[in-house]
Specification:
Layout: E1 9-12, H1 18-30, E2 35-38, H2 53-61, E3 68-72, E4 75-79, H3 88-92, H4 99-110, H5 116-123, H6 127-139, E5 143-146, E6 153-156
Length: 159
């Protein structure tokens, strides 16, 4: 059975059509809902889309859930899910953290690739104090660095 475009289904052959996909998603959100399926041509035939290790790492780096992989109607489906919107401040209340440590984790939660210099400017403390607070957060096993200093990202460890 080939899928066809309809009021609730929009087919895109590749991620290069991302602008059109976003327009369709907005239209679906304003009506009864629907699905945008990437990797299918308008005639319902499948197109090869590659989801590699980098795509999955980017999901994790940006704090998103890892994608689900499944098979539906003869097609391989990768479902990307939005990140959880837990209230980080509530999670941190009873951990005995300083206000600066809470601010650091809050900023990292917003931007996993934030630099220590950027943290210093946003929080209003010098870079040495940022480093000291990060060291304490690592010792409390609440924060870890994944990858290199320049190309890596911060990962908040939820307890």
């Amino acid at each position: 059975m080939k899928l066809k475009e309809s009021e609730k289904i929009e087919l895109k052959s590749s991620f290069s059509e991302w602008k059109e996909a976003i327009i369709a998603l907005c239209a679906f959100a304003n009506k009864k809902g629907g699905k945008v399926i990437v990797g299918m041509k308008d005639d319902g035939t499948t197109n090869e889309i590659q989801v590699g290790k980098n795509t999955i790492e980017e999901c994790e780096k940006n704090g998103n859930k890892l994608p689900d992989f499944s098979e539906k109607t003869g097609a391989f489906v990768v479902s990307f899910k939005k990140r959880e919107t837990k209230d980080l401040e509530k999670d941190l209340e009873n951990l005995g953290l300083s206000e600066n440590q809470k601010k650091i984790l809050s900023e990292i939660n917003k931007n996993k690739a934030i630099t220590q210099r950027e943290l210093s400017l946003k929080i209003g403390i010098n870079e040495k104090n940022v480093r000291n607070n990060i060291t304490e957060l690592k010792e409390k096993e609440l924060l870890e660095r994944v990858g290199s200093d320049k190309g890596g990202y911060w990962k908040i460890i939820k307890k």
